[in-house]
Structure formats: structure tokens, C-alpha cells
Amino acid sequence: MIELLQITNDPAFARRCDALPGMRLWVDLERLGKAERQAGLGSFISAHALDDVGRIKSVLRHSPLMVRVNPVNPQTPGEVSAVLAQGADLLMLPMFTTADELRQFARIVDGRAPIVPLLETAGALHSLPQWVATPGLAEVFVGLNDLHLSLGCRFMFEPLARGHVDQVAAVVHGAGLRFGFGGIARLDEGLLPGRDVLSEHVRLGSSAVILSRTFHRSDSSTSFEDEVASLREAEQRLATRSPAQRDADHQRVLARIDAIAAGMAPARAVAS
After folding, report:
1. What angle do the packed helices 224-239 and 194-204 form, to 10 degrees?
2. Using an 8 Å Cβ cutoff, are 28 and 7 in contact?
3. 224 vs 206, 212, 229, CA distance in Å?
4. Judging by DSSP bridges, how do beta strands 23-28 and 115-119 pair with one another?
5. Nearest CA to 5 among 231, 193, 164, 220?
6. CA pair distance 213, 45, nearest whole angstrom
7. Which of 89, 115, 165, 194 suits a disulfide with 64, CB 3.0-4.6 Å?
8. End-to-end Cα separation, the chain, in angstroms
9. Which residues lie below 8 Å from residue 173, measured CB to CB, with a gap of 6+?
10. Coil, strand, or helix at residue 271?
């Protein structure tokens, strides 16, 4: 079962998520540089605060709580200690580019919680073999929003079509770690429909995906719980495909990504 990651600082909604199997709650404290990097993309920019960690943790009975902190900076030791004091089960490090940055973060954490490196820069992608064995890692998660910008791609899912996500999956699984990537919309929604995204997760042996905001929008005629149930049913069906069906689906998804990217404006340059 793929773990479904839900970003929220709403205790009532977190309690609903916690009642479902295979969920991971996520409080997002990342601020440094994010608004500038993702300006104009319609991406989620969190307004979560440190106190939200404890508020969400207090209502969870089954699901782990992950907290994304800021990139390594002089305040990182204090931020890590404060987040752990509030009850975080896992720590996610965003926007690192080198193995040294991740190792520095691991030394700060010092085994107090499992670490989830968020691979979202070209530097982190190219240096993956150098840092995947860093002590304390539990999972490597590929963040497609920033990674596609860092690689000069037009469309968020182009790193999947270019083989980068396959490359990460092979290295991470070879190191005995969990692997996940990107976000997913409802099954029949999104530029790349959620059904196609889910197909690739199952093909790659992914362990985690972020649920997009479409799953709990207020104007929906179906409940969050029903949408998650539909996703689980589709996951089970996709897992029973023959190798030939899986490969045919993969080629169809790649062609769709290429067609979407071809209709988009050229990528803007960003730091890698």
C-alpha cells in the first residue's frame, strides 16, 4: 500500500485522515526562498507554524507525522530541536544540493528521528550516489515542483519522462530505502490525470505520494474518504497488471507528458 501524504495544520481534518489506513500527516514549516522559486506556478506555499506540529500530533493515533523544516541554515539546530519537542516522527530536509549539506543535517538530527531527504535540485539528483547511504535516512522523496525547474523542464512531470525518477528509484531501492515522488490529483483530474500518476507509482514501487488539494476541496460532491477509497481501489487494480500492460501504460504516460510539455512556454532558469 502506497502511503498517502496529507499536508495540513487543521486538527479536525488530520483526525479524519488518521482514521484511514496508510496515511502520513505533514506539517510544512519551509519558508526560506520558496515563494521566490515557485512564483507564478500556483504551488502550495505553507502558512504553518511551529505550534501546529504539536496540535496535529495530539490528535493522531495511527498515522506518523512528518515535518518539513527549512533548508540548512544557522537556525537549523534550534528548529530541529523545537520540532522534535513538539512530537515530529520524521524530519524532511528540502532544497539541499550536495552530500555535505545532507550530512550536516544528519549530524544535527543525531539519530533523534528518521530523515526524509527531499530531492528537488539538480545537484541533489546528480550527487545521489554520494549521499544515499547517509546514516539516519528512512526514505528519499522526489519533489517534482522544484526539481523540474532546476532541470530546466517545462512541465512538472518531465523528470519522469526523462528517466530521472526511474534512476532515483533504482538507486534508492538498491540502498534499501523507501522511495516516493510528487503529488497526485483525483483519478480523472489534473493535466496529467491522477490515474496516470498512480500507474507510474505502482510501476516504480513507490511507497509515498502527496495528495493534492483536489482531494478535499469544499465544492466537491464526494467526500475526502470516498476519493481516497477510489484511489485505493485503482491502486489494487494497477498492481495486478501484466508486465506487457504495465509497459504499455508507461509508454502512453510518457507520450502524454511529452505532449503536455510541448504546449508549454519554455522553462525559466533557476539555481540548481
Report:
1. 50
2. yes
3. 22, 11, 9
4. unpaired
5. 231
6. 12
7. 89
8. 33
9. 179, 205
10. coil
Q: How far apart are CA 180 and CA 182, in angstroms?
A: 7
Buried b (16+ CB within 10 A) or exposed e, 209-218: bbbbeebbee
DSSP 152: T
Cα-based distances in Å from 215 to 24, 28, 79: 15, 18, 30
pTM over 0.90: yes
**What domains lie within the chain, and their CATH numbers?**
3-262 (3.20.20.60)
272 residues of the chain, pLDDT tens digit each: 999 999 999 999 999 999 999 999 999 999 887 666 555 555 566 789 999 999 999 999 999 999 999 999 999 999 999 999 999 999 999 999 999 999 999 999 999 999 999 999 999 999 999 999 999 999 999 999 999 999 999 999 999 999 999 999 999 999 999 999 999 999 999 999 999 999 999 999 999 999 998 888 777 788 999 999 999 999 999 999 999 999 999 999 999 999 999 999 876 555 55
